[in-house]
Amino acid sequence: MPKAEQKLSSTARINSRQRSNTSSIHSTLVGPASRFSRHASPNIRQYYILFYPTGNTPAVCLTQDLPREQDANVLLLGCGDVRNILFTSYSNNGSKSRQLDITCCDHEARVLARNILLFTLIIDYGDSSNIWNIFYHLYLDNESLELLYIQTQKLYPLSASIQSWHSSKYGRLLRICDQGTLLRVRRIWDSYGSSDLSGEDEASYNKRFESGIQSARDMQAHHFGHGMNITGFRSAAPISIPSLKDLPELFRHFWEHGVTSGDRGSISKSRIPNPMFAGSLEDAFILHYGTDPLLGFHLATAYASLTSGSPLASSGNLHLHKVVAAARLQFRKWCASFRNDAQKNLTIRFFAGDALAFCHTLQHMHTTGDRFQSNWYRDQYHLEALILDGEDYASNGNAPLLFNVIDTSNLLDHVGAINILVAASPLLENSISATLYTEALVKNQEDLKALVDDILCGHFPTLSILFGLMPIEYWTNSTATSGVEEHLFDNVTRTMADRFSNTGQMHSRLTWKRFVAESTAVPVIRFDGPELAHILYQFYLKMFQNEDMTQLFSKIDRQTIHNSSVLHYHRGSLASFLRFVKKRVVVDWDESVNVFIGLVENNSTLLMNRNYMQELYLQLHLLDLYTVPTFRPPFKHTSHSQALKGLSAWKEIPAVICITLKVPRAQLRAITEVPLKKLGTPILHCVLQSSSNHPGRQWQNIFAVVQLAFGDVTTSGSRCDDGFRVSVSEDVHSWNGHSSLLVSFVAPSWVVLLEPHAATVAFGVQSTPQSSHTFMNSLGFDMDIYKTTLGNEENVYMTKYRPNLSGHASVCNFEEPSKMTNKHTNEEVATTVKASVDLKTGQITALIGRLDILLESIKSSLRNGAPVETVQTSPCTISIAIGKVGPKFHLLFPVPVQRSRSKSRIARKSSYIEVVAPMADPRDGRGYPHFMYPMFPSKHGPVIWNMPRLNLDCLPILDTSKKKELEWLTTHVSLMLSSRERHLREKSMEPGTAKQKDARINLKDSLFSLFMHFSGLQGQQARVFGVNNPGHGGVHILVFVSCLRLDLANHTVVLDAAILPLHDHLMPKLRPFLEKLTGIRLCSVIADNDELRLWKEIIPAWVERCRQWEHRPSCAYLSKSKIPLSVELGQNPICSCGEGTLPPRYSFDLPRWDLAVKYAVRVAISPSFSVPFVEQSFEGNKIPELVALYETGCRLCGKDKSDDGGKGLLRCARCQAVRYCSVECQRADWQEHKKVCKK
Asked: What angle do CA 867, 873, 874 make, to 5 degrees?
């Protein structure tokens, strides 16, 4: 699929690209993500709306990182379609009922209207083929259309008001956040009545529908060319290769016929345009050219050989392709689970508007309790104030304002990760299980590693510390979710670019947790002022690197030009981030911000640095971060020769005013007449500039934080008074209407007063490589769309606040109350943590933990020379023992550190101890090797930080008797090893080389053996395994594998097994069983001490992730406050709560199994993958070999048989990777293939 649209939250722009995973998109004028912009982005020509009604990444379980017993408050930003909610219901099926409260936010009301209508259909009718048709088909048969019409007629009167809706049969489950959302959704439901049109109206509607579909097809041709659209491969993971033949053809079929069915009868009956995919009579639309109804499902079940009776095993349908049958079966099962949940423990809330504005409004409500004065606009392209006036947000309402799950979809592609985290992370509960997810789909970097290095505008570990979040996969370099196929596929498609279209995609998903160590909050980090300033300055340079011409011209390629033209940030974004940081660190802020401003003011590398300085000063002033003298009253006009009027006459002139510019519609032709394919993503801004007659030095200031809307202006009060107000009655027809475009921005009063009448104000396009190419010829060098003077009262309005608002936007960001806790203190000691920063790079190089002794007896002991010992007890904890039998104290760090490289400072007279600990580097493979899947006790049950929970009974079971169909498993499981690990392993196998000592590599080898031997793909098939440490007691762990399942949401496989850790207390009870077991063939997995310890570290996570039983109140995890309980030889790593709770079908033909089953517990064992954005998954020189995995036919012509009549294809003799049907095809392809062919 072509590159997904990257939606600016920085500077208003015109947007004509795709929105990917967040379901819907407009070609819009997009506004910035700052305190004042409210992300303004009116649509550019509504007949070019790109609508993405269905998701294009497979569904995920939203509660997979919460304990089984914990209620879930979920916030979905850019929620998209229903797939994640339905799949979450299915995944929770059969488990303990939890209260699930989901708040859905999407800027596109059409998405919410579709979703709510679907939910009501499921409630009323369960599942039927008609419901599938209504939600996924472009064209409907009469029966499906009639059902849609009946349901719409039912919902429309119920939605007359929030009160009437909430009183309806659907109102308990489906809640509306505010009246504005309800009005938009209701208007869309009303448009579905187009099914009742007749005559000219019907003909006109059908014509516009077909025109929109044809425009989408034209876009497909433009973006995909002659290559195949293969983005669906990730939906078929981990069995992606066979899907490369089917999914492009099914995509073509859907766009040719508008239905998923292959039955000619169904196709011929489905001829009526589906209103769920269209606009209203007034609107025109283009369905997004990448829309594919199958991509939200887990399509691997279509290619897997499943056992009889397996969950999600399709019985087959002669009229449906196996992929479509698999998707429809999942939809049916998901709907059934949802309908069951809807009757008891589920609430879903809906808000239509901008995600960042919604988050900041929730922050305001949580801080102040006020829901009316947040002063944010609803979205990017209206001047409607965002007011959550639904009853659930009243003072006695029950809508959550904080959440333990926040999923941001791939909004970071559109608004930038910094804006997302600043807005959303304060809403994340301060709990050990709370989780925030970010997702990227747009490929704007070379690889995943480069993406992570770029995503936070600076050094990834340093910036994540400032955010107070731990990206857990990064620090553990371990995951039970496979991303290697994505990484592999990206490399292979580059090699095979002649065969496949350029997808422009690179999918990654990051899991963020709160800083927590051993269930105790980590102290807030202290900084020296200048050191923090240098971090912020390097961040500033990275955030605005598009303005660095030296960097741009040092590497001019397509990717660089694109990244320099599609921007996410402006100075308002920077100021919001600085406010966020100020509230979360301990520092002399005045000192730090003064050093930072000095560095920025003296910068000479950013071309537009000085032009944006006044906007930076303005944003810092409004957020109470820094105020330059010119922003302090009194403000005086410079000329006394004229009678005071306008702003000059105000009695009380504020430091900042709003300027609203009315742009005549005729001036917009410079934008509207540009063909859509050439439009790109131009960024809009406003400019204040001195007149040509200005007596002093000429000046110019650019303001990127702008808000746009169409409408008619009404004013109140006198222009000579600060009570002057501007109100706007918006034009609902937007770009298709006749009203002027209204552009508002805030500016410093002192700048305006330099020439309050003669200075020029302009609205135009910011210069980027792309926009300059498109607009400079037509608009001139300055690229101004409209220009006038401040004295033009017909088109320029100056007010205290923005139109329709009563104040400046609220930005809260929480934290503070003395930074929550900047020092941990008890009667004996106080601990603090301080950052050590490299001033040149702006990176944190080490963390300094300090222990101040408070108790006199310990002070005396330290002064008298008591020995001090430091021991690392966990990745984030260093313990300090004072004296041989003295007390032990803990230094808690926010990230893993390396004690082996640390230095201690002991101040015996001053009574403190410091440990300077470098941060661990997850890429070097050393660090803390056992930190893979950390777990913590909690009141809700054990929390797993890095391994998704599974409902094993819902997962499909693979048929291991069909070896041919299971061959893909060998490659999949072998990709657990990173390139570095694979190199170390191969080196250790060379003659005369010592055995591999890396515990992780050895563990992965052992897991590989489990999967290969159970499946029978390598070695003798086995079901019983023993983890054997021959030098220390023999077998320590027994594993009894029941079956091999597909873990669909995590794109991998899982062994459904029982585990029996053998410990000293249990051995006497199991002696009869163990004696009988010695005579049975047991697959022995050899493990040394380090690997055995790693097994014991991970077993509790394997147990907990699939648990269907409850922990007892006396659970040892709680009483001992640690998981695992022990990793020592002869000790049990897990609690006893789950012993003997195996499902009834867990039956093994073993002597005295009845004895063993009393102590065994169920586990879900997954492959353990290294993380592609931490280190390479495989070497570049292996690409030709990997290409062979995707070459399912002749590389040149695609035939799957050789021309000589044989069944097999010929392989390239040089690389043995690619195949040909004949010598002629090989010769014809050699000029291309030789570029990558290697011996």
From this structure: 150
Strands 829-838 and 525-526: parallel
719 burial (CB, 10 Å; 0-12 / 13-18 / 19+) is middle
Q: Of 735, 733, 726, 859, whose CA–CA distance to 796 is shortest?
A: 726
- Torsional sign, CA 665, 666, 667, 670: positive
Q: 258 near 276, Cβ under 8 Å?
A: no
Q: Is 934 exposed, middle or buried (0-12, 13-18, 19+ CB in 10 A)?
A: buried
According to DSSP, the residues that pair with 491 across neighbouring strands are none
149 backbone dihedrals φ, ψ, rounded to 5°: -65, -45
User: What distance in Å separates the CA atoms of residue 137 and residue 144, rounded to the nearest whole number?
Assistant: 10
652 closest CA partner among 633, 638, 637: 633
Three-state SS at 982: helix
d(CA 1049, CA 300) in angstroms, rounded, equals: 10
- Asked if 896 contacts 918 with a C-beta cutoff of 8 angstroms, the reply is no
Please tell me the pTM assigned to this model: 0.92
Q: What is the residue-averaged pLDDT of the chain? A: 86
Pick from 892-906, 991-1005, 1077-1091, 1187-1201: least confident: 1187-1201
The span from the first CA to the last CA of the chain, in angstroms, equals 33
Three-state DSSP class for 87? helix
Distances (CA, A) of 288 to 18, 25, 106, 749: 7, 8, 17, 44
What SS3 class is residue 175? strand
Cα–Cα distance, 1187 to 493 (Å, whole number): 8
Helix, strand and coil in the chain, % to nearest 5: 35, 20, 45
Given a contact cutoff of 8 angstroms between Cβ atoms, the answer to whether 337 and 951 are in contact is no
Residue in the block written with tokens 């589920």: 346
Distance between CA 947 and CA 1167 in Å, rounded? 11
**Which pair of tokens denotes residue 180?**
């504005």
SS3 letters across 466-529: HHCEEEHHHHHCCECCCCHHHHHHHHHHHHCCCCECCCCEEEEEEEEEECEECCEECCCEECCH
Four-CA torsion 401, 405, 411, 412, nearest 10 degrees:
110
pLDDT higher than threshold 70 for residue 442: yes
Cβ distance 86 to 102 under 8 Å? no
DSSP for 710-739, please give it.
EEEEEEES-TTSTT-EEEEEE-TTGGGSSS
CA distances from 686 to 172, 380, 566 (A): 46, 16, 18
Query: What pLDDT was estimated at residue 117?
Result: 98
**What span, in angstroms and rounded, lies between the C-alpha atoms of 300 and 310?**
14
User: CA nearest 463: which of 408, 518, 421, 415?
Assistant: 421
**90 pLDDT above the threshold of 70:** yes
Tokens 């609220």 belong to 810
The closest of 617, 643, 649, 652 to 631, measured between CA atoms, is 617
Q: Which of 618, 562, 612 is nearest to 3 (CA)?
A: 562
For residues 967 and 428, what is the distance between their CA atoms, to the nearest angstrom?
43
Integer Cα distance of 299 and 839 in angstroms: 50
pLDDT of residue 814: 66
DSSP state of 957: B
Write the Ramachandran bin of 972: left for phi over 0, alpha for psi from -120 to 50, otherwise beta.
Answer: alpha
For residue 1044, report the phi and psi dihedrals to the nearest 5 degrees. Answer: -110, 125
Q: For tokens 């005396």, what's the residue? A: 860
Q: What is the pLDDT of residues 30-66, one digit of tens each?
A: 333 333 333 432 223 333 567 889 998 999 999 999 9
| Predicted pLDDT of residue 502 | 52
The two three-digit tokens of residue 486, written as one number: 């994505």
